[in-house]
UniProtKB/TrEMBL annotation:
<keyword id="KW-0479">Metal-binding</keyword>
<dbReference type="GO" id="GO:0004044">
    <property type="term" value="F:amidophosphoribosyltransferase activity"/>
</dbReference>
<dbReference type="GO" id="GO:0006189">
    <property type="term" value="P:'de novo' IMP biosynthetic process"/>
</dbReference>
<keyword id="KW-0328">Glycosyltransferase</keyword>
<protein>
    <recommendedName>
        <fullName>Amidophosphoribosyltransferase</fullName>
        <ecNumber>2.4.2.14</ecNumber>
    </recommendedName>
</protein>
<keyword id="KW-0460">Magnesium</keyword>
<dbReference type="InterPro" id="IPR029057">
    <property type="entry name" value="PRTase-like"/>
</dbReference>
<comment type="function">
    <text>Catalyzes the formation of phosphoribosylamine from phosphoribosylpyrophosphate (PRPP) and glutamine.</text>
</comment>
<dbReference type="Pfam" id="PF00156">
    <property type="entry name" value="Pribosyltran"/>
</dbReference>
<keyword id="KW-0315">Glutamine amidotransferase</keyword>
<keyword id="KW-0411">Iron-sulfur</keyword>
<feature type="binding site">
    <location>
        <position position="376"/>
    </location>
    <ligand>
        <name>Mg(2+)</name>
    </ligand>
</feature>
<dbReference type="InterPro" id="IPR029055">
    <property type="entry name" value="Ntn_hydrolases_N"/>
</dbReference>
<keyword id="KW-0808">Transferase</keyword>
<feature type="binding site">
    <location>
        <position position="375"/>
    </location>
    <ligand>
        <name>Mg(2+)</name>
    </ligand>
</feature>
<feature type="binding site">
    <location>
        <position position="412"/>
    </location>
    <ligand>
        <name>[4Fe-4S] cluster</name>
    </ligand>
</feature>
<dbReference type="GO" id="GO:0051539">
    <property type="term" value="F:4 iron, 4 sulfur cluster binding"/>
</dbReference>
Length: 482
């Protein structure tokens, strides 16, 4: 094997090993997707399709719990939804109520105990829970519950929610409402017993959650794209602090808290959500196009031959930029979809290599061209630096980088792995230093005001851009102050 082949082999081997070996690093947390089906024929299969549409929110593990009205059956495992569930398995999961989960596991751990749904069997029946978000008073609650004798199976904060529900007094709805008032942070969760599902959204509205009427019942999802595959185009967003009960065929809305505000995660619009999803009434593709067009508006004097976007999350913004600037949009980069997400490789060397494996420049498009290259965000700086280098190696004469979000300067404690402060390049460097680091001919980010303009007044969390967290951070404050 010659040197080049051997080093490519070793890159791939590193990546596969990493994927298999469950390497974790403590400071990073997961994004996830939840789906529920209420009074729906073949609820497990419908949930399977729902989870498949939410797969971009988590590829590490997948699970479904189904209720036949008397018993809850659980199936879950590591891997993509299609790998965990085969037809025979789904056929064996009989029932008309189901909740499911896709997990992007990092810090909570990849142990089987942390894969959701988590199901508990108590004297008053079984409960299944699926959760997206991160609870910031997790440590305090875990200590309190352990002191009271609770035994945890895993390290995921979803188990805390389940324990809290179990220890409250009253009806299931009252217990869920009391629990929602005890936990702080980002959460959109579903709780199912044998005949009822509760959907709950945190009082800051940090994570999305919507439901829709299906032909025979109701479906609930982290993102509306999961409804569209079922031919459902109308949905209802839960409001911050709201609990929705699906019981005896009736849907009932209530607020468990009146102390609410509105801080939808800006990163959902910028990066996570699928372009065909509608988050708080705004289509994600339309939002991203608007960010591109705002960036172009401020670039009146920039002369370039083509506009390209980093696939996939930056393509909409690049189209918006190109339209506004009157510069042709081109496919300058092609993505290999079968390489794991670059962001979560455990070492910088592995991240560097996987960017190269994941993205290739189209040299016939970029050669001899002055390029505007749009990316959605810069976190550690690995991706942009590599891409500028790839484009220049392929013959681009100039690369002007435009980022469709503000500079990330603070970590996220609400379930998104924007890493620790010392790893955030924007926290250490000025924009000019960053431009130099990524070897761009020019570099510009959006302002917070421009972000708000693109969301037409939806209340946003912008904490990773401005350090203004909408909750107390509890033990995470120490991490921030380090
Ligand atoms: P970096 O190379 O560390 O600067 O990462 C920036 C790239 O990662 C961008 O191109 C984004 O598309 C992507 N990205 C941004 N935030 C996240 C996240 N929380 N998880 C995974 N990827 C992300
Ligand atoms: Fe989203 Fe950033 Fe807020 Fe985290 S800190 S919830 S990533 S906007």
């Amino acid at each position: 094997m010659d040197d080049e082949k051997s080093s490519i082999f070793s890159y791939m081997h590193d990546i596969m090993l990493w994927q298999r070996r469950s390497v974790m690093f403590d400071e990073i947390h997961e994004e996830c997707g939840v789906f529920g089906a209420y009074r729906v024929d073949n609820a497990a299969s419908i949930t399977y399709y729902g989870l498949h549409s939410l797969q971009h929110r988590g590829q590490e593990a997948s699970g479904i719990a189904v209720s036949d009205g008397e018993n809850i059956t659980l199936q879950k495992g590591k891997g993509l939804t299609v790998d965990v569930f085969q037809k025979e398995k789904l056929d064996s999961m009989v029932g008309r109520l189901a909740v499911g989960h896709v997990r992007y596991s990092t810090a909570g751990g990849q142990e089987n105990e942390n894969i959701q749904p988590i199901v508990s069997k108590g004297h008053n029946g079984s409960l299944a829970i699926v959760h997206n978000g991160q609870i910031v008073n997790e440590k305090e609650l875990r200590i309190e519950l352990e002191n009271e004798g609770a035994i945890f199976q895993g390290t995921s904060d979803s188990e805390i929610i389940l324990h809290l529900i179990q220890k409250q007094k009253g009806t299931l709805k009252e217990r869920v409402m009391k629990t929602a008032n005890r936990i702080e942070g980002a959460f959109s969760f579903l709780v199912m017993n044998e005949d009822t599902i509760y959907a709950v959204r945190d009082r800051h509205g940090l994570r999305p959650l919507s439901y829709a009427k299906s032909k025979d019942g109701y479906v609930i999802s982290s993102e509306t794209c999961a409804f569209e595959v079922m031919g459902i185009y109308e949905s209802v967003d839960l409001k911050p602090g709201e609990i929705v009960e699906f019981h005896k065929g009736i849907v009932k809305h209530e607020f468990y808290s009146t102390d609410t505000d509105h801080h939808m995660c800006a990163m959902e619009y910028i990066y996570f959500a699928r372009p065909d999803s509608v988050v708080e009434g705004i289509n994600v593709h339309a939002f991203r196009k608007a960010t591109g067009s705002i960036l172009a508006r401020e670039d009146k004097d920039l002369k370039a031959d083509i506009v390209i976007g980093v696939p996939d999350s930056s393509l909409s913004a690049a189209i918006g930029y190109a339209e506004e600037a009157g510069i042709p949009f081109e496919t300058g980069l092609v993505k290999n979809r079968y390489v794991g997400r670059t962001f979560i490789q455990p070492t910088q060397a592995m991240r560097d290599r996987s960017v190269r494996l994941k993205l290739s420049p189209v040299s016939s498009v970029v050669k001899g061209k002055s390029i505007v290259m749009i990316d959605d965000s810069i976190v550690r700086g690995t991706t942009s630096r590599r891409i500028v280098q790839l484009l220049k190696d392929a013959g681009a004469t100039q690369v002007h980088v435009r980022i469709a979000s503000p500079v990330i300067t603070s970590p996220c404690f609400y379930g998104v792995d924007t890493s620790t402060k010392d790893q955030l390049i924007g926290a250490r460097m000025s924009v000019e230093e960053l431009r130099e680091y990524i070897c761009a001919d020019s570099l510009r980010f959006m302002t917070e005001e421009e972000m708000k303009e693109a969301t037409h007044g939806v209340g946003l969390c912008l904490a990773c851009f401005n350090g203004e967290y909408c909750t107390k951070l509890f033990s995470y404050q120490e991490e921030l102050d380090k």
